[in-house]
Amino acid sequence: MIRLTVLYNLPPETDEEEFLAWRLGEHQESNMSMPGVIASSFYRIYGTWTGDPPPYRFMTTVDWPDRESFGRGFFDPHVQAKLRDDVQRIRDAVFLISEELASGSVSESRE
Q: InterPro entries annotated for this entry (predicted)?
Protein backbone atom coordinates (compact mmCIF):
# COMPACT_ATOMS: atom_id res chain seq x y z
CA MET A 1 0.00 0.00 0.00
CA ILE A 2 1.10 3.55 -0.76
CA ARG A 3 0.00 6.31 1.61
CA LEU A 4 0.08 10.04 1.04
CA THR A 5 0.18 11.88 4.37
CA VAL A 6 -0.28 15.64 4.41
CA LEU A 7 0.45 17.59 7.60
CA TYR A 8 -0.61 21.23 7.66
CA ASN A 9 -1.89 24.32 9.41
CA LEU A 10 -4.40 26.95 8.36
CA PRO A 11 -3.59 30.56 7.55
CA PRO A 12 -4.45 32.81 10.54
CA GLU A 13 -7.31 34.54 8.71
CA THR A 14 -9.10 31.23 7.95
CA ASP A 15 -12.57 30.62 9.36
CA GLU A 16 -12.00 27.11 10.76
CA GLU A 17 -15.69 26.13 10.69
CA GLU A 18 -15.90 27.11 7.02
CA PHE A 19 -12.69 25.20 6.28
CA LEU A 20 -13.98 22.08 8.07
CA ALA A 21 -17.25 22.19 6.12
CA TRP A 22 -15.28 22.29 2.85
CA ARG A 23 -12.71 19.70 3.99
CA LEU A 24 -15.26 17.20 5.31
CA GLY A 25 -17.56 17.62 2.32
CA GLU A 26 -16.32 18.68 -1.10
CA HIS A 27 -12.65 17.94 -0.48
CA GLN A 28 -13.24 14.51 1.08
CA GLU A 29 -15.34 13.58 -1.96
CA SER A 30 -12.56 14.85 -4.22
CA ASN A 31 -9.95 12.75 -2.40
CA MET A 32 -12.09 9.62 -2.66
CA SER A 33 -12.71 10.20 -6.37
CA MET A 34 -9.00 10.20 -7.30
CA PRO A 35 -8.22 7.23 -9.53
CA GLY A 36 -7.24 4.14 -7.54
CA VAL A 37 -7.88 5.55 -4.05
CA ILE A 38 -8.96 2.90 -1.53
CA ALA A 39 -9.23 5.10 1.59
CA SER A 40 -8.88 8.68 2.77
CA SER A 41 -8.98 9.95 6.35
CA PHE A 42 -8.85 13.40 7.92
CA TYR A 43 -7.57 14.15 11.43
CA ARG A 44 -7.31 17.06 13.83
CA ILE A 45 -3.98 16.83 15.65
CA TYR A 46 -4.40 17.53 19.35
CA GLY A 47 -1.06 16.76 20.96
CA THR A 48 2.41 15.28 21.01
CA TRP A 49 3.88 12.60 23.24
CA THR A 50 6.15 15.20 24.89
CA GLY A 51 3.26 17.52 25.69
CA ASP A 52 4.69 20.25 23.47
CA PRO A 53 2.28 22.01 21.14
CA PRO A 54 2.04 20.06 17.87
CA PRO A 55 3.73 21.70 14.87
CA TYR A 56 0.69 20.86 12.69
CA ARG A 57 -3.04 21.21 13.30
CA PHE A 58 -4.43 18.80 10.71
CA MET A 59 -3.47 15.61 8.87
CA THR A 60 -4.91 13.93 5.82
CA THR A 61 -4.06 10.43 4.63
CA VAL A 62 -4.92 8.94 1.25
CA ASP A 63 -4.20 5.30 0.37
CA TRP A 64 -3.63 3.47 -2.90
CA PRO A 65 -3.03 -0.28 -3.25
CA ASP A 66 0.35 0.04 -5.02
CA ARG A 67 2.88 2.44 -6.56
CA GLU A 68 1.46 2.13 -10.05
CA SER A 69 -2.06 3.15 -9.04
CA PHE A 70 -0.64 5.95 -6.86
CA GLY A 71 1.35 7.32 -9.78
CA ARG A 72 -1.64 7.17 -12.12
CA GLY A 73 -4.00 8.72 -9.59
CA PHE A 74 -2.00 11.35 -7.74
CA PHE A 75 0.03 12.61 -10.69
CA ASP A 76 -2.94 12.78 -13.04
CA PRO A 77 -2.83 16.32 -14.54
CA HIS A 78 -6.40 17.10 -13.39
CA VAL A 79 -5.61 15.99 -9.83
CA GLN A 80 -2.45 18.10 -9.77
CA ALA A 81 -4.31 21.17 -11.10
CA LYS A 82 -6.96 20.81 -8.37
CA LEU A 83 -4.25 20.26 -5.75
CA ARG A 84 -2.51 23.50 -6.74
CA ASP A 85 -5.80 25.32 -6.05
CA ASP A 86 -6.60 23.42 -2.86
CA VAL A 87 -3.22 24.04 -1.19
CA GLN A 88 -4.03 27.76 -1.29
CA ARG A 89 -6.39 27.07 1.65
CA ILE A 90 -3.62 25.72 3.90
CA ARG A 91 -0.10 26.63 5.00
CA ASP A 92 3.09 24.90 6.17
CA ALA A 93 2.10 21.77 4.23
CA VAL A 94 4.34 18.71 4.27
CA PHE A 95 3.50 15.95 1.79
CA LEU A 96 4.91 12.52 2.68
CA ILE A 97 4.63 9.49 0.40
CA SER A 98 5.22 6.17 2.12
CA GLU A 99 5.04 2.48 1.30
CA GLU A 100 3.67 0.06 3.87
CA LEU A 101 6.12 -2.69 4.77
CA ALA A 102 4.22 -4.30 7.65
CA SER A 103 0.81 -4.03 9.28
CA GLY A 104 -1.13 -5.68 12.04
CA SER A 105 -4.09 -5.32 14.31
CA VAL A 106 -4.75 -5.84 18.00
CA SER A 107 -6.90 -8.90 17.27
CA GLU A 108 -4.09 -10.50 15.22
CA SER A 109 -1.53 -10.01 17.99
CA ARG A 110 -3.79 -11.61 20.64
CA GLU A 111 -4.56 -14.82 18.75
A: Dimeric_a/b-barrel (IPR011008)
